[in-house]
Amino acid sequence: MPPEPVQPISRRLAEIALELGAIKIAPDTPFTWASGARMPIYNDNRLLLGEYDHRLLIAEGFRSILTANQIKTDTIAGTATAGIPHATTLANTLKCPLIYVRPTAKEHGMKNRIEGPLKPAQEVVVVEDLISTGGSVLKVVQALREAGATVRHCLGIFSYGFPETLRNFEDQDCQLHTLIRFEDLLAFMQETGKLKGEQLQTLLDWKDNPFEWWDNKSK
């Protein structure tokens, strides 16, 4: 099956992210992630917060996903902290309520984990900036469901597209929609001459087995 065409917003975001260094590719000199694993790619979407046009482009991309998939949206929920600014812009664009979800409940005051107005049975769409394995954002989905919300969809700016990630979302009956898929990024970099053939193969090998990739490569 041929790859899906790269959409204009995805192409523009990929271009911006690479220009800003929000996405860095270094197959020969990999980065060390917080987990300690060595990886040939690094993502810092916080660099996309600096320009109004970039924030608006992301919100418009999210809105186009909601429209194309006919996703009912009563409330937008941002993940603390990286998802909050993009959830805010999207909620403003849609003119709908905004909430955000902490990793854990506060230890003082009202001891809330979910901040903002949430009514039972509302259709909530979760916004995250980066999807790695999906573990943290799916905990947010579970917290919202336990509070009585209906959560069927999660939006993200970028996903590495790990097989484990796709299984995790499927297991939780939640659909993941990302503006830049890993394959979109590779396609854009190939078209613009930013990626050599051997680097492409390295990245494809990494995606299939990301957490053992460096150890296997170093043997």
Q: What does this entry look like structurally?
A:
The structure is a single chain. With 219 residues, the protein is an alpha/beta fold. The protein is 41% helix and 21% strand. The chain has a single domain (8-218), classed as Rossmann fold (3-Layer(aba) Sandwich). It contains 8 helices and 10 strands. A 6-stranded mixed β-sheet has the order 7-6-5-8-9-10, sandwiched between helices. Helix 5 (163-171) links the parallel strand 9 (150-159) and strand 10. Helix 1 (8-20) packs antiparallel against helix 2 and helix 2 (52-68) packs across helix 3 (84-94). Residues 1-6 have low confidence and may be disordered.
CATH architecture type = 3-Layer(aba) Sandwich
Helical amount: 40-55%
Shape: globular
Number of domains: 1
Mean residue pLDDT: 92
Assembly context of the chains: single chain
Task: Outline the low-pLDDT stretches.
Answer: 1-6
Tell me, what is the CATH class? Answer: Alpha Beta
Number of strands: 10
Largest β-sheet summary: 6 strands, mixed
Strand order of the largest sheet: 7-6-5-8-9-10
- Number of distinct helices: 8
Separation of the first and last Cα atoms: 34 Å
Radius of gyration: 18 Å
**What name does the CATH topology carry?**
Rossmann fold
Secondary-structure-based class equals alpha/beta
